[in-house]
Design brief:
Chain lengths: ~290, ~220
């Protein structure tokens, strides 16, 4: 984080484009359809559970189910273990103490504050994705929350104006532009990502106002980011253990969940179910307010 | 910009487990019920158990768990789910192996998820739309949209169902677009049948998860 924080600020534009160039051929390779399972035997002729569900007939849906390659699995697993130790021995204890120090309401306000700080990232990405309405919503949110919401501490836009946060990030933007994920990367501290996601993080770091305001204060920026991390974890205590204890292979569980989730953000949930009587399309996969932490 | 994405992913996975428990309440599915009604009833049923003050005490913990497990045992379509999490290699297994896997997987899920029952804290479920489709072989599939209201968060949860013997059973649950079956499938895929069995047996017996230290590191 700290390290990436340093990289993220400035002078990374060239790096971003270099990585994007790298990404393209990889994308092409990764986009080759996975070998279809051999449809052997007619035993299941009457019923084929692996034909998956009947809603997967849309092209986006097929795209969203592209598997993510993991050529660096041993390294990724190594960092998975490193992060696990980091969480168990440092972050979790710190967040637990922190949670006892500050009431949940205040931590919730701080979360809103950090989210509000990053609104420009979402505004820019909505624009890049051509989602003008969402961009407008995020802009309104920024104005409302910064003023009425006391500098972003209160998500007044959500509470009083019904304007929920609409997620957007540069990794998602690249996905919308047709870039594949490349391959899986499990970063130290940062956790699950992909090549595309990593480029996205770098790109968003470019836009992040925090990085601009505190360009000359890497120490302060680091402290701020550390604070945000501990604050976030303090609002999700116990969830990590829940997963790692219950998964069959936690590394694979998290890798897959990450990719399914990110694919959903890019391709939509594929769930525009018409209700009895019919109603407008379901909200885009943007309404999950906590998608950035 | 610090973005620890882990919590989001974890939340999704944690929810999957909660949902799996709630799904168990598939329970009172009966012949005439539409998929949507089936889910509605199931949710009411389970929320009823979980918010029953008489069952909320520590002493009633066992009973509470048993009630939920009963639902699971009786109405959760583990055959269907097992088939899907194993993928095409299901075809290569003989009947005995299939039975063994289904039983073990069921136990594995129960052991891992049953404690979620104790963490229930007034989550609300809003059942929304349903859609039913029929494939060329006449199998009827449904998906039912719900929203889990957890604190100030609204999380979309989709149930995938199939009509079996004139009642609707759940074969997959998707939280935020993350499919439970797909998630297990990707965990199981790299392991041989023998490894799956022995590892699940081990985890059930020891009550411990995957030992991180045993991972081959570099």
């Amino acid at each position: 984080m700290t390290k990436s924080g340093g990289v993220l600020g400035y002078g990374c534009g060239r790096l971003v484009w270099f990585i994007m160039l790298l990404l393209m051929p990889v994308t092409a390779v990764a986009a080759e359809p996975a070998a279809a399972p051999v449809n052997g035997g007619d035993e299941a002729a009457a019923y084929d559970p692996w034909g998956d569900d009947p809603w997967d007939d849309k092209q986006e849906s097929a795209a969203s189910h592209q598997p993510l390659a993991d050529p660096l699995e041993p390294l990724n697993r190594f960092f998975f273990v490193v992060n696990d130790k980091l969480y168990v021995y440092a972050l979790n204890p710190a967040a637990t103490v922190y949670a006892h120090t500050l009431p949940a309401d205040i931590r919730s306000c701080l979360r809103s504050f950090f989210r509000n700080l990053l609104a420009p990232v979402r505004i820019v990405n909505h624009l890049l994705q051509g989602r003008l309405a969402d961009s407008g919503v995020e802009l309104s949110r920024l104005v409302i929350n910064t003023t009425i919401g006391v500098g972003g501490l209160v998500d007044s836009a959500s509470r009083n104006f019904g304007l929920a946060q609409r997620h957007a990030d540069f990794g998602q933007t690249l996905g919308v532009y047709g870039f594949g994920g490349g391959f899986y990367l499990h970063w130290p501290v940062l956790g699950p990502s992909s090549l595309r996601g990593t480029v996205g993080m770098l790109g968003d770091g470019y836009v992040s106002p925090v990085n601009h305001l505190l360009a000359d204060e890497p120490g302060v920026r680091f402290a701020l980011e550390g604070w945000r991390l501990v604050n976030t974890i303090s609002l999700h205590l116990g969830e990590y253990e829940q997963i790692t204890d219950n998964a069959f292979d936690p590394y694979l569980a998290i890798r897959d969940a990450y990719w399914q989730y990110r694919s959903g953000q890019v391709h939509g949930y594929d769930s525009e179910v018409a209700p009895p009587g019919g109603y407008s399309k379901r909200a885009q996969p943007t309404r999950f307010a906590a998608d950035d932490d | 910009m610090l973005q620890l994405r882990l919590p989001t992913i974890l939340k999704v996975l944690a929810l999957l487990s909660l949902v799996a428990v709630v799904t168990a309440g598939q329970a009172r599915a009966s012949a005439e019920l539409e998929p949507r009604e089936t889910v509605k009833r199931a949710v009411d049923e389970i929320v009823g158990i979980l918010s029953d003050p008489e069952l909320a005490t520590d002493e009633a913990r066992e009973q509470r768990h048993r009630l939920v497990v009963e639902q699971v045992e009786k109405f959760f379509d583990f055959d269907e789910i097992s088939m899907r999490v194993l993928g095409p290699r299901w075809r290569d297994l003989d009947d005995e192996q299939r039975r063994q896997f289904v039983e073990l997987f069921k136990k594995f899920l129960e052991r891992n998820y049953i404690n979620r029952v104790d963490q229930y804290s007034d989550e609300k479920v809003v059942v929304r739309a349903q859609e039913v489709r029929e494939d060329s072989r006449g199998n009827r599939y449904a998906r039912v949209q719900t929203d889990f209201i957890i604190g100030d968060q609204q999380v979309p949860v989709d149930y995938r169902m199939i009509e079996r013997d004139e009642r609707w059973v759940v074969y997959d649950v998707r939280v935020e677009g993350v499919s439970l079956v797909r998630n297990f499938r990707s965990q199981f895929d790299p392991y041989s049948y023998g490894e799956l069995i022995s590892r699940m047996q081990e985890q059930i017996a020891t009550g411990e998860g995957f030992e991180l230290d045993e991972l081959e590191v570099l």
